[in-house]
UniProtKB/TrEMBL annotation:
Pfam families reported in the protein's UniProt record: ANF_receptor
GO cellular component, one term: membrane
The entry's keywords: Membrane, Transmembrane, Transmembrane helix
Domain Receptor ligand binding region: 111-248
Biological source species: Pseudidiomarina aestuarii
Record protein name field: Receptor ligand binding region domain-containing protein
Residue intervals passing through the bilayer: none
Protein location: Membrane
Length: 610
């Protein structure tokens, strides 16, 4: 009986050991299963999920061109041994793996996007999925790729949530809606506009993008007097546009001049306090404080006997009060009471005087900025230091602030103070804009990257003249790259702002060591693209070029085909490595989260030939 029990226990133990051995010998996750297939297969697959249509075909064409080059040269497909990593050699042993490109039409429904992603990851040789123009497809597909260990690199999805979930395999190389809205709002504000009327498509993209825009516009001081939405497939925008037009009304000239005067008065007061704090003697500080005290509570002599440190404390208190919103509001109300008594022609005289005073400050700041600190007098050095203290900004920002105020004055005098912000996709936004022009709504229109499609569409259409002034955000502009490269070769100095039509100008974002390498590398691709397809690469073609190069360089950097190693390489080494290898056109990636790779600063592009 005891022997039977012993044998039963022994057999049970052996079965348990055998079962554990079996489990440990098998892949325990979908990622490990994929890893084994990628290591053994002679072919690696890359999926491109992108909308069909000639206006966006450049993306797929560019990816195909780069993949063909990779296969021709075996770039990025060599795996080094540990010894080769220590002693690099030119004759590394490369395996016979090649990349195969699989195209998929991007779905427009969430359930279809999930189903498609599951089909893609069912392929055990699938290395990465590129593309995804719309967030409505990218967001639901992302968890599928994450679970299966397939790298997803979106070049079109701008929803901020895509890379917000701490995923390891989800990336994008395009700025998100929050960043894009901030760029647009700042540009509209800096150009001097006062009111932004919002139209948006009530879907994932339109709602999120317009919400971010309103938030940033309000923070900058832009007004959003009215907003309206439309549904997908909407075609009759007449009622919506008529309602919006009825809310477009002339500005209150008195209030606008009063506010501009208040802002300049606040800046001047803060500059005076900063000057006294850094260079004023006791007598001048006492004179200033006594004058302030007299305005508040009548004449007071108690400052005369105070030590310097105590006088400085009073100045700092005054500086804090002067920088407050309450103080600005009090100046505004005071100016408003005075201006309201004037005739309209007299108010315009006040506006001209304000403009002249701003111009005086602008010239003064520029002259200080242009001085060589090694040769100027101590007074000028101190003045530069003080100027940089104004409203806690440096001289460049103060200059931009005053120039923005001048632009607002120019807009007020011309009456062109309103713009329309629109968030939506084609064809609806194109129909909305055309019908707005038919209703004689001629305001400039600003929007995100979907507006680029209007320009592409108009290239194949005989009559696009009625679209008027349209400005879209673009990630890449071939002509701007060319101009910046030419300016750099001519020795132009980097500038923060390059005005439209300014040829010999090098934008500061391109004044980095890797720009020349990046442009030359891109130019080689552009020539191949032109030869293959008979046209220049557009914005989406450049996104495709960069996306495919990201995969190529990641394979080279990682020395591995393991999904986890590739993802970790892209997460923690990519941007610095890409900069060194000349893939980044600008000096830095502007990605907010760890999944934002090779994200460049967005640019305002005026649609031409419309």
């Amino acid at each position: 009986m005891k022997w039977r029990l012993f044998y039963a226990v022994l057999i049970g133990y052996l079965v348990f050991v055998a079962y554990r051995f079996y489990l440990e010998s098998q892949p325990i996750s979908a990622i490990e299963i994929r890893q084994n297939h990628l290591a053994q297969s002679e072919q690696l697959d890359v999926a491109v999920v992108w909308p069909e249509g000639e206006d966006k075909a450049g993306y797929v064409k560019a990816v195909r061109l780069v993949v063909e080059a990779i296969n021709a040269e075996r770039l990025g497909l060599c795996q080094s041994t540990e010894q080769e990593k220590l002693e690099p050699a030119d004759n590394k042993a490369c395996n016979t793996k090649v990349l195969r490109l699989l195209n998929y039409a991007e779905p427009i429904r969430r359930d279809a996007a999930v189903k498609q992603a599951k089909t893609i990851v069912r392929n055990p040789n699938m290395l990465a999925a590129l593309g995804y123009y719309r967030s409505v497809a990218a967001l639901p597909a992302a968890p599928v790729y994450e679970f299966e260990g397939v790298m997803m690199l979106s070049s079109g999805s701008t929803n901020a949530k895509l890379t917000d979930y701490d995923f390891n395999y989800i990336f994008r190389n395009v700025a998100n809606d929050d960043t894009n809205a901030k760029v647009l709002a700042k540009h509209i504000h800096d150009e001097g506009y006062i009111n932004a009327y919002v139209i948006y498509e009530r879907d994932l993209y339109g709602t999120e993008f317009s919400n971010y825009f309103i938030e940033h516009a309000s923070a900058l001081g832009l007004r959003v007097p009215a907003q309206a939405f439309f549904e997908e497939n909407h075609t009759n925008f007449g009622p919506l546009l008529s309602s919006l037009r009825s809310k477009i009304s002339p500005i209150n000239l008195t209030d606008e001049i009063a506010l501009l005067q208040a802002k300049l008065q606040q800046a001047e007061r803060m500059l005076e306090i900063a000057r006294l704090s850094s260079s004023g003697d006791d007598a001048s500080i006492i004179e200033f404080l006594a004058a302030e005290q007299k305005l508040k509570n009548g004449e007071n002599k108690f400052f005369d006997s105070m030590p310097r440190t105590k006088l400085q404390q009073y100045l700092q208190t005054d500086l804090k009060q002067s920088s407050s919103t309450a103080y600005l509001e009090s100046l505004f109300l005071k100016n408003q009471k005075e201006l309201i008594l004037l005739e309209k022609t007299e108010q315009y005289v006040e506006l001209d005087q304000l403009n002249a005073e701003l111009q005086m400050w602008i010239e003064k700041i520029k002259s200080i900025k242009d001085e060589d600190n090694s040769s100027v007098s101590a007074r000028l050095i101190n003045e530069l230091h003080v100027t940089r203290k104004v409203i806690d900004l440096d001289a460049d920002e103060v200059l931009l602030k005053f120039e923005q105020m001048q632009k607002r004055i120019s807009k007020i005098k011309s009456g062109e103070v309103d713009v329309i912000f629109i968030a939506g996709f084609m064809p609806e936004v194109g129909v909305a804009i055309a019908q707005a022009r038919d209703l004689d709504i001629k305001l400039p229109i600003f929007g995100g990257h979907p507006l680029i499609d209007i320009e592409d569409q108009c290239k194949t259409t005989a009559d696009c003249a009625d679209y008027g002034d349209i400005y879209a955000l673009v990630t890449h502009d071939v002509n701007q790259y060319r101009r910046a490269y030419d300016a750099m070769k001519q020795g132009a100095e980097p500038q923060d702002v390059c005005f439209e039509g300014e040829e010999n100008c090098l934008p500061a974002r391109y004044a980095c060591p890797n720009f020349e390498t990046a442009y030359i590398k891109f130019r080689e691709f552009a020539e191949s693209y032109q030869q293959a397809y008979g046209t220049e690469p557009d914005n989406w073609a450049i996104q495709g070029y960069l996306a495919a190069n990201i995969i190529q360089e990641t394979l080279k950097i990682a020395y591995s085909l393991e999904p986890e190693v590739l993802a970790d390489t892209l997460l923690y080494r990519a941007n610095s490595e890409f900069a060194d290898k000349g893939l980044m056109f600008s000096c830095h990636s502007h990605g907010i989260t760890k999944g934002d790779i090779l994200v460049e600063e967005m640019k305002i592009h005026k649609l031409e030939d419309l």
